[in-house]
């Protein structure tokens, strides 16, 4: 069973402690939302898990192995998938070509003139199936650079799906999207939740999005883990509402 754990994870930038001894275990079949005010350390924590940053102290365990010193590409190969902060689109290639390259990477396929057409055909079929899942089947021949912001985010989800990760990491997936585009991406994430073998992590400021998707919420403040529990419990906590979500006691979380 897939497991992901951070133990006393800490990073300092000079005298500033951005993430301070955060210990947390993430479980398969569960979507965990990471919330907190601006500057709380949410994205920095994500960067530590995905390998964009190296911790000052602490460790990260993935499937029982210590991956603290692994590079981001090696973590991706191990099964950590991240979308929306780091875009891996090839803007001048078509939507289908982008996904096909991701499928090819996941399967370790390298083309040469002696490889049979069946291999390429299978890769295209897999890419097209993924595009249909993310509602981009009708745009498979469009250049990635010509997609709307919302469609580019859907393509990023498709690329992550093509890599078959064990962990899906979404950093503010609805940021910059139109009202019409938001439900499509939320539905995609909800579909991913149906696979009980996957771990899903979500950084999100919008509490309506968090409420609609999360099985669990953890709250960071000043780099520290200050709350961890079921959404209703965490959102109802007076200290979380007032100090970390900016909601006065007695008011509802919007």
Automatic annotation (TrEMBL):
It comes from the Bacteria. One of its GO terms (cellular component) is plasma membrane. One of its GO terms (molecular function) is ATP binding. InterPro entries: AAA+_ATPase, ABC_AA/LPS_Transport, ABC_transporter-like_ATP-bd, ABC_transporter-like_CS, BCA_ABC_TP_C, P-loop_NTPase. The keyword Nucleotide-binding applies. Belongs to the ABC transporter superfamily. Involved in beta-(1-->2)glucan export. Transmembrane domains (TMD) form a pore in the inner membrane and the ATP-binding domain (NBD) is responsible for energy generation. This is ABC transporter ATP-binding protein. It comes from Bradyrhizobium sediminis. The lineage of its organism: Bacteria, Pseudomonadati, Pseudomonadota, Alphaproteobacteria, Hyphomicrobiales.
